[in-house]
Amino acid sequence: MSDDSRPSPSATPSAARTAAVIPAAGRGVRLGPGAPKALRALGGTPMLIHAVRAMAASRAVSLVVVVAPPEGAAEVKSLLDAHALPERTDFLVVPGGQTRKESVKLGLDALPAGHDIVLVHDAARPLVPVDTVDAVIEAVREGAPAVVPALPLADTVKQVEPAGTPGEPEPVVATPDRARLRAVQTPQGFDRATLVRAHETVTGDVTDDAGMVEQLGLTVVAVPGHEEAFKVTRPLDLVLAEAVLARRRLNDGF
To answer: Transferase: present as a keyword of the record (predicted)?
Structure first.
């Protein structure tokens, strides 16, 4: 497939099987000391379990691959075995790498043949609604090589010249047009062959897999994200996630 090519809708038919890869090998230092971020409790259940259930909630997802800390794969496997997960979905745990990029690649390498659509989802986004997951999958099925859920920005954004020392004042150099900016979430969805090629081709540090596809010269499209798909990074995020989960359980029996 050349760099300017794009899978046609017939290349990813509606019957294409979908797998989700969840890199969960990071420590999550911004949440403070203790267990890795993905294993922190949310409503009495590890965030990772919530994230796995969020992917498996989509009837299109037939396999979830959890990429665990290299020394903790057995613990994560036991964790999955101990919690109720949808029977229609298969689960696999593989050891991760030193970086997120390495972990995603190891998860990709573990996928069996026949899964032509791949989702990559942050374990720290435990509450993404199933409608968002399905919207990403549908956009890939319709022919997009890469899809991201995204939200408009609520705040004005400033571009600054970074200070040499943390905490020092930073000169503002530009004010980007907020209407053209989006805050990107996960799961990000991909035509499998495209994502594999991106991981084999793109080197250097990247913040998300869609950015790697952009470097191939392919189009990444955005679909509407959801405010409850936020990333739990800091202690205040965990408080908000607990509140969202409590409201769901009260209103929906989640």
So the answer is: yes
Q: Are 29 and 108 in contact (CB under 8 A)?
A: no
**Predicted confidence (pLDDT) at residue 14 exceeds the cutoff of 70:** no
Q: Count how many domains the chain has.
A: 1
Q: Residue 46 belongs to a domain with what CATH number?
A: 3.90.550.10
CA 252, chain centre distance (Å): 24
Q: What is the pLDDT of residues 160-197, one digit of tens each?
A: 999 888 889 999 999 999 999 999 999 999 999 999 99
Strand ranges in the chain using DSSP code E only, listed in sequence order: 17-23, 41-42, 45-46, 61-68, 90-95, 115-120, 146-152, 159-160, 172-174, 182-184, 188-191, 220-224
DSSP state of 206: -
- Kindly state the tokens that stand for 247: 């409201």
Identify whether 32 is part of a domain.
Answer: yes
Amino acid at 41: A
8 A C-beta contact, residue 36 and residue 26: yes
In eight-state DSSP terms, residue 89 is: S
- Residues with Cβ < 8 Å from 2, sequence gap 6 or more? none
